[in-house]
Design goal:
heterodimer; A: mainly beta; Immunoglobulin-like; 2 domains; about 50% strand; globular; B: two-stranded antiparallel ribbon; 5 helices; about 15% strand
Chain lengths: ~280, ~210
Amino acid sequence: MHVVIATLLTLSAWGSPDGPVVTMEAAPVLSQVAPGGTMPVAVRFTIPEAWHIYWKDAGTAGVATELRVKAPPNVKIGPVRYSRPMSIDDPAGVVLGYERTALLVFNAKVDSTITADEWVELTVEASWMVCKKACYLGSGRVHVRFAVNQATASPGPGKAWLEAASIPKPLTATQAKVTLRPGVLELQLGSGIPAPAFILFHVPGVEVQPARFDQQEGRTIMRIPYRLSHRDAMGHAPVLSGLLTQGTSVKDSCWWVDIPLPSPVETGGSALTNDAQGEPEP
Amino acid sequence: MILKSLAAAAAILCAGTLVAQPITSPPKPTTKAAIGEPAPAFTLTDLDGKTHNLADYKGKTVVLEWFNAGCPWSGRESAQSVHATGRVKKLVAAAKKTHADVVYLLIDSSADRPKETIIEQNKSAREKFEIKQPMLVDYDGKVGRLYGARTTPHMFVIDGEGVLQYSGAFGDKRAKEDGSESNFVLVALEKLKAGDPVEPGQTRPWGCGVKYKR
């Protein structure tokens, strides 16, 4: 039987019985996976009207929603990908997060030693802060099971969730050319994208000003002034990270960008690296 | 900083009527907080009606903590509150070992409730968490905006010369698996004591957004 079981667990905020209830569900994106294959798993949060939870970089204020996945030793869990967030007005400034629903995705790579007709069970734990006028902390735990077998996979229950959100795709070197001038990163995209924007993921020691966009001969060029502060880096490599978006809807396409930055005196080319995000797309 | 000093010197030279400042004059407070610059001046009243002027603490190291009695990372009972978990008490005790005369002030810039309610809730939190430090009320948010305070908690360290040396997070959000926890404020205080540059001077603060008056 190729049925996928996703356990639903609803939790209210920690120690805050008066807080809003955020529900958390997890489901495989495919009906089953072959030995040695990769199963994308989607985790969906449903948020009460007018409340919000946060993206992996909360922006001006807030706390990131976080996932921890416990898996058997023969299953390797990849990095968590966050669906495209929205900007939310807050008294402290603009924050980045989700209203109504949020989707996080990770890949579970099944070792080839797992024999067909076995089941894999994962435990997914999450923590979040949900805010409107006040803020409440929340946490949840769900279990998700999927079958390992050689049958042709069909869409699992997580597929529909994925289709309703925009999960960042890695921006590859064939799609964009990176040029570094003193203190300015320039990203030339092979084609034009409508209503472009860049959502920064803060890396300690990298200070970035807002991106500027130009459309030239049908191509989009993004320029981001930056400054490196080794004093504040805390051992982090200097990387410009963030989300390049098109359009204004959270369902519009977006690409994850990771560009290593040289020290300010070094200029020239650089390359896109998407180690954290470059996994097979669900 | 050098550019600003040159500009100031040029301005003095151009204005013949200006009197040269003595070299020993204290740094003038700036109007917006910046690391390595004099900390913005402020005068605020605490929960007991006592006035606190930053200038009164000259010569002492000052730690500012932005506070909100309704925030689960700050002054509300929760497993993550820096007050409920005793992290602030630990910090103050450790800070006194490196800077015996350290001044620790809590500032609340919330304006999402009536001022009287905020004062009442802060008094209640003070009693519940046995907070011994002065809790200042910044209802109009002017001081918070001057410092760029974004979250509760959001921490600032000002040295004895009145220069802002650290701005950012309290430490890691949660203790590590081995039970240890980082505290960037304590790191800053230790660096100051040793006469070393404060590294990191800025980190990304976490917590609830400061509930400024809109």
